[in-house]
């Protein structure tokens, strides 16, 4: 978790650097499209700060009031990020509208574009790192931040190309049109982030591939058991919650059943990582003959 917090702190620093470069680009050119890019970077800084706070809170151990831990805090961060993205899109559309009514000739475009290009390269590298680490560490906050930044990167690439065309051709109306397209693009990204995070808050089951892995692990590592049924899963941040019923022979001692569960829990954690596993042991007359058969 310390590494995750360090990455979240790094996002704040990178966001401030990129914001500074993009503002310089706008100041040099007067381009509303580059202004839209800078506005999105303001959102990046705010959401990076929120993600850091959420990750720090989610790392707190379970307590009397939160016996299952604080892992869901990261989902609130991702939802808030989606909301802020939508607000940024509305601000950008507003600026694009007024610029459309009164198009302005771009000033010092090439120096400004160079500053924006440098910011885009920095953003791309950091977004790739956040997405990679967010997946590896199963951090919704890092993953949401990385995906948002990658959306920002593609928006910036489109803006750069369009502003270059506008600067060369002198067609000033291209500038507000580009800004409006940026706004629509990040609106779509914001909706995707909120939808994914709400799934986590609603205790949606884990992805089918991982569920199949858990079933296979139970089938091949529950030596001494007969079957497992009523398997349920959910995920909260980096923690996976798994519970199921395990059927053993009626003559199995409590000690032997306990050993079976311990071995099975370790095998599952080896496959899925951090997990809270609850196993309800039942005698063989409770078998449903429709669950997971132990090989």
UniProtKB/TrEMBL annotation:
It is found in: Membrane. It holds the Pfam family ZT_dimer. Residues 11-202 form the Cation efflux protein transmembrane domain. Coiled coil: none annotated. It is a multi-pass membrane protein. SUPFAM superfamilies: Cation efflux protein cytoplasmic domain-like, Cation efflux protein transmembrane domain-like. Residues 210-283 form the Cation efflux protein cytoplasmic domain. The chain crosses the membrane at residues 7-26, 38-57, 78-98, 110-131, 152-171, 177-194. InterPro entries: Cation_efflux, Cation_efflux_CTD, Cation_efflux_CTD_sf, Cation_efflux_TM, Cation_efflux_TMD_sf, CDF_Transporter. This is Cation transporter. Keywords: Membrane, Transmembrane, Transmembrane helix, Transport. Belongs to the cation diffusion facilitator (CDF) transporter (TC 2.A.4) family.
